[in-house]
From TrEMBL:
<keyword id="KW-0378">Hydrolase</keyword>
<dbReference type="InterPro" id="IPR011330">
    <property type="entry name" value="Glyco_hydro/deAcase_b/a-brl"/>
</dbReference>
<feature type="domain" description="NodB homology">
    <location>
        <begin position="62"/>
        <end position="267"/>
    </location>
</feature>
<protein>
    <submittedName>
        <fullName>Polysaccharide deacetylase family protein</fullName>
        <ecNumber>3.-.-.-</ecNumber>
    </submittedName>
</protein>
<dbReference type="GO" id="GO:0016787">
    <property type="term" value="F:hydrolase activity"/>
</dbReference>
<dbReference type="InterPro" id="IPR051398">
    <property type="entry name" value="Polysacch_Deacetylase"/>
</dbReference>
<keyword id="KW-0732">Signal</keyword>
<dbReference type="Pfam" id="PF01522">
    <property type="entry name" value="Polysacc_deac_1"/>
</dbReference>
<dbReference type="InterPro" id="IPR002509">
    <property type="entry name" value="NODB_dom"/>
</dbReference>
């Protein structure tokens, strides 16, 4: 069964400029949830999808997965009550170094106001699945091995220590990975990792590069409906796929140069 896995970021009426393009207005988000309910979709967390993929539980009718990257504070304020009202499941991938009260662990540059640790706790208690999104939102495929391992292990450790349970899923910052990064993710104990791809997740798709479909500021309700129904993905996302393909060539070149300079094998 092919499953649409949606990728959100901010849900805000007036986000910071840096986060605007990948934000969704709260009213539009509510309308999207209404559409999913009206058309009989069953929302799953990433962990629940992983269990379906492993054959541990049967797939529900019309499954769909809602994911939110970075950990913006507006998830708690805007998305969480709307998800609860719709009885919808979701996964939030948290950048631990970006948290509003990260303190001595602060790292990277958040694009807008981020969740606090207490809000992460409240989301977890409300049934939202918490996943990792690295520690500083680094471009993982450009990091040397030691820094890569730290980004992966630190974010997971901080989340598990705080929440008191396993955090086995990760989303790649910027959606980028490589064979070396995916090996490191598996070695760090993650059992599934989400990319972008702008494709629906087919049964045989790589569990360490789970494709997702971008929902952005300019995704109107008609387009959203076509996305979740699996209609015209190639047409809807042609620009994003073209840019991604071109930038992938650039990134692989940078990674190869960095590997040569550091004495490791290119990934």
């Amino acid at each position: 069964m092919t499953v649409p896995v949606l990728m959100y970021h901010s849900v805000a009426a007036d986000p910071a400029d840096a986060a605007r393009g990948l934000s969704v207005h709260p009213d539009r988000f509510a309308a999207q949830l209404d559409l999913l309910a009206a058309e009989g979709f069953t929302t799953l967390t990433v962990g629940e999808l992983a269990a379906v993929r492993r054959g541990e539980v049967p797939a529900p009718d019309r499954p769909i997965v809602l994911t939110f990257d970075d950990g913006y504070a507006d998830f708690h304020r805007e998305a969480l009550p709307r998800l609860a009202g719709a009885r919808a499941r979701a996964t939030v991938f948290v950048t631990t170094g970006w948290l509003d009260d990260a303190g001595a662990e602060a790292a990277g540059r958040p694009l807008d106001r981020m969740l606090s640790w207490s809000q992460v706790d409240e989301c977890d208690a409300a049934g939202v699945e918490i996943g990792a999104h690295s520690h500083s939102h680094a471009q993982l495929d450009q990091l040397p091995d030691a820094a890569l391992r730290d980004e992966l292990s630190r974010s997971r450790r901080l989340l598990e220590e705080r929440l008191g349970h396993e955090v086995p899923h990760l989303a790649y910052p910027y959606g980028y990975s490589s064979a070396r990064v995916r090996r490191a993710v598996a070695d760090a104990g993650y059992r599934l990792a989400a990319a972008v791809g702008n494709l629906a997740a087919a049964p045989g798709s790589d569990g360490y590069a789970l494709p997702r479909l971008t929902v952005a500021r300019d995704t109107d309700l008609d387009t959203f409906g076509r996305v979740v129904r699996g209609e015209q993905h190639a047409r809807i996302y042609w620009k994003q796929r073209t840019l991604t393909a071109g930038y992938l060539v650039v990134r692989r070149g940078r990674s190869a140069l960095a590997a040569v300079s550091s004495g490791r094998r290119p990934s």
